[in-house]
Design goal:
Length: about 100
């Protein structure tokens, strides 16, 4: 198993993610090569909670222009982690 800090990059904070927290689901941006088992073990080890389900999705980067130059934002992988009822992740509690 990989180091949990290498699997989870950062929590994802947006309006939609705050509404997901009411359903006990927490979104993270994770390493592109991480699988669901590694994500589950990383969240359980770092936050001392019980994970019921992990949903992952790969988001393709958009094409962007800076004047006449064209670039591309990097691809990223998101994971939505469903926790056992009663468990909370304290990182998100101040939002």
């Amino acid at each position: 198993m990989r180091n949990p800090h290498d699997v989870l990059i950062k929590p994802l904070v947006s309006e939609k993610s705050i509404s997901l927290m009411e359903q006990n689901k927490y979104p993270f941006i994770v390493d592109k090569n991480a699988n669901k088992v590694e994500i589950k073990h990383a969240v359980q080890e770092l936050f001392k909670v019980t994970v019921l389900n992990v949903t992952t999705m790969t988001v393709k980067g958009k094409m962007k222009r800076m004047g006449r130059y064209i670039g591309k934002r990097p691809d990223r992988k998101k994971a939505i982690v469903t926790l056992k009822p009663g468990d909370k992740i304290e990182v998100f509690e101040g939002l």
